[in-house]
Design a protein that fits this description.
Number of domains: 2
Distance between the termini: 101 Å
Number of helices: 11
Structural class: mainly alpha
Order of helices and strands: HHHHHHHHHHH
């Protein structure tokens, strides 16, 4: 009988199973309550920041990631030296970040996202002399803007393109085989940042050569504007990129 009454009493106060609180209320005994958080907050995670002078596995992992995106060609040492700092700056610049050379959480997250996106893409197909098409045209345009190739893009991978590419590879510490593999393709794209292209597009628009959007892309309208400016002023494509005309 007492058991039934206790259960009814507990249910009436929505206390559930008879425990210390139910017993205390029933017999008039004060029971201390432990504080409870209705919205527990997870402890904040420390932000990772890697900078020049640091050592360890985190730096080694950073170097491997920078190597995979084509901006680091030095040895994997686990030491954040000049080469690592330069590679971080290059990656940051290519992604529109402040190129301070410090691998903060935002830089590390973006680096991981770039690699994750690349892993989801089909495997890169190398190409070389004799190849044709849009990829060849993009390669030639970038080599031209970097000062390695004098002629306008033809979309045909000829001997002149191979020679220019080989020199670019040597300068970047990449195996100079004259073939565009994943590392070379990444390096050639990282060499010219989106912000550089946007600045060039703005100058070309002011000069009346370009009417397209300021999108930081080396698309067909931008390429046509570069060629028009190059011919009118008698300068190289590299000079057009720098604004030296």
């Amino acid at each position: 009988m007492i058991r039934i009454m206790v259960n009814v009493f507990g249910r009436s106060l929505t206390l559930g199973v008879m425990g210390a609180l139910t017993t205390g209320l029933l017999w008039g005994v004060a029971v201390p309550l432990l504080p409870m958080s209705l919205n527990p907050t997870a402890p904040a995670q420390a932000q990772t920041i890697l900078k020049k002078g640091d050592r360890g596995e985190a730096v080694e992992r950073l170097q491997r990631q920078l190597q995979q995106v084509g901006v680091f060609n030095g040895p994997i040492t686990g030491f954040y030296g000049d080469q690592t700092e330069t590679a971080v700056r290059q990656f940051q610049r290519s992604r529109g970040l402040n190129p301070d050379g410090v691998a903060g959480q935002h830089t590390l997250n973006l680096l991981a996202a770039v690699l994750a996106a690349r892993n989801r893409q089909p495997q890169f197909q190398p190409f070389g002399e004799g190849s044709q098409g849009d990829r060849v045209g993009q390669l030639q345009l970038r080599l031209q803007l970097l000062g390695y190739l004098a002629n306008a893009p033809t979309r045909n991978f000829d001997q002149a393109t191979r020679s220019a590419l080989t020199q670019f590879q040597r300068d970047r510490g990449i195996n100079a085989d004259g073939v565009v593999g994943q590392q070379t393709w990444t390096a050639i794209h990282s060499a010219i940042s989106a912000s550089q292209v946007r600045n060039m597009q703005e100058r070309l628009r002011v000069a009346g050569f370009y009417r397209g959007p300021i999108n930081g892309q080396l698309d067909a309208p931008t390429q046509q504007a570069i060629e028009s400016a190059r011919r009118l002023y008698g300068v190289s494509a590299a000079a057009v990129l720098r604004g030296s005309y």
